[in-house]
């Protein structure tokens, strides 16, 4: 008999008052009992709407059935058939817009906590003694992967399993891409990312850090001089956008990328870190996505007394995961909706002292289908802050495009690729944010997977 | 990886290191830079490349000991390895087609100016070099500049060597005496570059400056190194580090560079304390 409780089994989490001052993980994960209880809420329905909502089509009811039966290893195997990073996706996927959105249980009450169960299965697996992934026999073909974020790691893993000799090139000193520089420790502990990277290494994937492809080696050199038969570009969307309003270059104005990189990658929050960060007291974060939530909650944790999220639409349109918004509010982040900054004001030394904003109201729907924000006349007001973080999106980095002849991009910088990841250059594939612009971990992973399949077909077709 | 194959002091507080990094050595052009971390858990800092030796596969860096990280870097010896060394980053200095150039270097900026002067000289360009230092003890690379310069003028603040005064004095004299420079390339402290630009502007001599703001990734990802150039925001790491000196907002750049001064002082002092403890 399924468990017909209308609500999800609650997720244990750190007290908001305590966690607002530490970088430990907020959600602590289900126990076995909780996982079983939640798994029994799944109706195992015939038409499986959840599966179609998953970008990588994990066989969700099957793995949940195994959780209910207590066979977590079998559950892990089912997830692994479709996903390479379950411990990551269980934590950062926007489930409410994907699998859980379509769950039948969601019609009367809350959907099954699919993400929470995925996380439980992955964490259970990771807690077991390492069995040691087997390095598959080499098929003698070399593939280069540029970027070690979700799309690159996935593509590399899938190709390695097929016997390819894969080398991943990472520009920073640590592998993981946005998983290590962007998403904070309290939402995605870095040892989980490291574990995924280690798993790849066990499969025989070589990871070369400090390699800025496009500078130290070009795509052409990788293919002509180093013998890589195909290249996958998963270089992400690293270029931060600014609003182009007066005062944006004052001291104390950060892009979210910079603020998060200092905090996460460079561990500026630690007492003895050599990388500095501003310990601001009142912080305005501009934007409404996950990155904005991450920046706001990081600012709180390094000592801000007040943190404001400024978003030009209403709460309903916030693109962030609902859980992040909920957590941010619990921790004391203040949400100023329908608010648009127009100027940042500085003191005599050019440090931020205030932000000037206008109120907005929602008009007719725009091209994105969301109601367009329109400024309210004479609504300007000024708020005292000493730090402003711009989290209004990123664009693909032009570094590779500018050094690879014949690699075409869209006007906004996204690499042009077909549905299999093929770019306009033979043997060169691309996926993730470098193609789509800033999106989600799971979509990037899906594209890495698709490209791996296409690369395999491409190389086989040449034999 | 990234082994220090040579280390020697150039002056009291300036050190030269040759780092084994064959791929970077092969690609680097004058004006480009690297990002390095001296040790694991260290800070990422940008340093401009002072030269390369492709046969040995080494990259030369010259740095002044100014903060916690450069101090930490200076504790490493020949045979030690740097934790990380990535590059070559930024755009090379554009020197194609130049026939007569005045290179102006200030302090440790001379280490960056040198490879540019050498390359110009190699290309058959007439090179006039003006270098400035606080005093004789801080002078570096005298022989190297002499070898690649058709004119070489040394200025010191206190007159302990060369001529007493600032670099803009001989620069103005040379321009007024009728020297027709295709370009002036200035590399040094922001204040010096600002005054070089103010000197050349009335004469309309194109002036390139090399900016060295605070950076993290060096690939355009963080935007921390942004500058206002001709009213537009530019990222020094990918759009530069060289810019048209007439267009750079130096006052803003100076303020942004000072952003973490308090933190840096604290970090520097605690590194000193830590090192002192180790010595004791």
Count of distinct structural domains of chain A: 3
Report the helical percentage of chain A. Answer: 25-40%
Distance between the termini of chain A: 54 Å
What ranges of chain A have pLDDT less than 50 throughout 5 or more consecutive residues? none
Could you please describe the fold and organization of this structure?
The complex is a heterodimer of chains A (463) and B (280). With 463 residues, chain A is an alpha/beta fold. Chain A folds into 3 domains: 16-127, Alpha-helical ferredoxin (Fumarate Reductase Iron-sulfur Protein, Chain B, domain 2), CATH 1.10.1060; 142-238 and 395-462, FAD/NAD(P)-binding domain; 242-392, FAD/NAD(P)-binding domain (3-Layer(bba) Sandwich), CATH 3.50.50.60. Helices cover 33% and strands 16% of the residues of chain A. Chain A has 16 helices and 16 strands. In chain A, the strands form 4 sheets. Chain A has a 5-stranded parallel β-sheet with strand order 3-2-1-4-16. In chain A, strands 6-14-7-8-9 form a 5-stranded parallel β-sheet. In chain A, helix 14 links the parallel strand 8 and strand 9 (334-336). In chain A, helix 13 packs parallel to helix 14. Chain A is globular and about 65 Å long. Chain A starts with 15 loop residues before the first helix and ends with a helix. In chain A, 53% of the residues are buried. By secondary structure, chain B is an alpha/beta fold. In chain B, the strands form 3 sheets. A 7-stranded mixed β-sheet of chain B has the order 10-9-8-7-11-12-15, with helices on both faces. A 6-stranded antiparallel β-sheet of chain B has the order 1-2-5-4-3-6. In chain B, strands 13-14 form a two-stranded antiparallel ribbon. In chain B, strand 13 (226-229) and strand 14 form a beta hairpin. In chain B, helix 2 (68-74) runs parallel beside helix 9, helix 3 packs parallel to helix 4 and helix 5 (168-176) packs parallel to helix 6. Chain B is globular. The mean pLDDT of chain B is 91. Chain A binds chain B through residues 171-173, 181, 209-212, 215-217, 238-240, 242, 244, 248-249, 251-252, 254-255, 257-258, 261-262, 266-267, 272-276, 278, 349-350, 397-399, and chain B through 23-24, 27, 37, 41-44, 68-69, 72, 83-89, 216-224, 226-228, 233, 238, 252, 255-256, 258-260, 263-264, 267, 270.
């Amino acid at each position: 008999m399924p468990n017909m409780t209308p609500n999800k089994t609650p997720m244990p989490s750190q007290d908001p008052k305590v966690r607002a001052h530490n970088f430990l993980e907020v959600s602590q994960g289900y126990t076995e009992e909780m996982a079983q209880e939640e798994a029994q809420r799944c109706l195992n329905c015939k038409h499986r709407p959840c599966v179609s909502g998953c970008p990588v089509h994990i066989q969700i009811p099957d793995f949940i059935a195994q959780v209910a039966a207590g066979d977590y290893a079998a559950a892990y195997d089912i997830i692994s058939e479709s996903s390479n990073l379950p411990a990551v996706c269980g934590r950062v996927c926007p489930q409410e817009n994907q699998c859980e959105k379509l769950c039948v249980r969601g019609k009367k009450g809350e959907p099954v906590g699919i993400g929470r169960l995925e996380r439980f299965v992955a964490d259970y697996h990771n807690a077991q003694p390492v069995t040691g992934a087997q390095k598959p026999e080499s098929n003698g073909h070399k593939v280069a992967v540029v970027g070690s974020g979700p799309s690159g790691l996935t593509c590399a893993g899938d190709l390695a399993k097929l016997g390819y000799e894969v080398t991943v090139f990472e520009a920073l000193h640590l592998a993981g891409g946005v998983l290590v520089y962007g998403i904070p420790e309290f939402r995605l502990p870095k040892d989980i990312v490291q574990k995924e990277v280690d798993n790849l290494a066990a499969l025989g994937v070589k990871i070369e850090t400090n390699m800025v492809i496009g500078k130290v080696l070009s795509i052409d050199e990788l293919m002509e001089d180093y013998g890589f038969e195909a290249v996958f570009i998963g270089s992400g969307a690293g270029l931060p956008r600014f609003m182009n309003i007066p005062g944006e270059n004052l001291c104390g104005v950060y892009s979210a990328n910079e603020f998060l990189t200092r905090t996460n990658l460079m561990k500026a929050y630690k007492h003895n870190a050599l990388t500095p960060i501003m310990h601001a007291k009142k912080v305005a974060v501009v934007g409404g996505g996950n990155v904005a939530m991450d920046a706001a909650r990081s600012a709180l944790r390094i000592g801000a007394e007040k943190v404001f999220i400024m978003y030009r639409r209403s709460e309903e349109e916030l693109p962030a995961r609902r859980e992040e918004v909920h957590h941010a509010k619990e921790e004391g982040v203040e949400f100023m909706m329908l608010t648009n900054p127009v100027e940042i004001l500085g003191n005599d030394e050019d440090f931020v002292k205030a932000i000037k904003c206008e109120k907005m109201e929602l008009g007719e729907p725009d091209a994105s289908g969301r109601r367009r924000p329109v400024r309210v006349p004479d609504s300007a007001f000024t708020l005292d802050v000493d730090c402003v973080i711009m989290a209004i999106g990123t664009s693909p980095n032009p570094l590779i495009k500018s050094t690879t002849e014949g690699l075409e991009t869209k006007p906004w910088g996204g690499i042009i690729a077909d549905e299999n990841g093929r770019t306009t250059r033979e043997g060169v594939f691309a996926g993730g944010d470098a193609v789509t612009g800033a999106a989600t971990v799971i979509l990037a992973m899906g594209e890495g997977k698709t490209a791996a399949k296409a690369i395999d077909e491409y190389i086989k077709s040449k034999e | 990886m990234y082994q220090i194959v040579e280390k020697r002091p150039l002056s009291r507080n300036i050190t030269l290191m040759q780092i084994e990094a064959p791929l970077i050595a092969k690609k680097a052009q004058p004006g480009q830079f690297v990002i390095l971390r001296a040790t694991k858990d260290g800070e990422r800092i940008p340093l401009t490349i002072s030269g390369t030796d492709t046969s040995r596969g080494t990259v030369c860096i010259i740095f002044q000991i100014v903060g916690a990280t450069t101090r930490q870097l200076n504790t490493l010896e020949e045979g030690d390895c740097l934790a990380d060394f990535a590059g070559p980053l930024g755009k090379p200095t554009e020197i194609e087609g130049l026939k007569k150039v005045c290179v102006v270097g200030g302090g440790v900026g001379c280490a960056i100016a040198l490879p540019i002067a050498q390359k110009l000289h190699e290309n058959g360009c007439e090179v006039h070099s003006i270098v400035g230092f606080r005093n004789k003890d801080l002078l570096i690379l005298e022989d190297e500049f002499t070898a690649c310069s058709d004119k070489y003028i040394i200025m010191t603040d206190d007159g302990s060597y060369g001529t007493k005064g600032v670099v803009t004095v001989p620069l103005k004299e040379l321009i007024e005496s009728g020297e027709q420079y295709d370009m002036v390339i200035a590399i040094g402290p922001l204040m010096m570059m600002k005054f070089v630009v103010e000197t050349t502007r009335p004469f309309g001599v194109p002036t390139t400056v090399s900016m060295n703001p605070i950076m993290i990734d060096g690939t355009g990802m963080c935007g921390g190194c942004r500058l206002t150039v001709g009213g537009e925001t530019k990222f020094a790491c990918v759009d530069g580090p060289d810019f048209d000196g007439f267009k750079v907002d130096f006052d803003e750049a100076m303020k942004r560079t000072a952003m973490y001064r308090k933190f840096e002082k604290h970090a520097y002092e605690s590194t000193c304390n830590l090192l002192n403890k180790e010595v004791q």
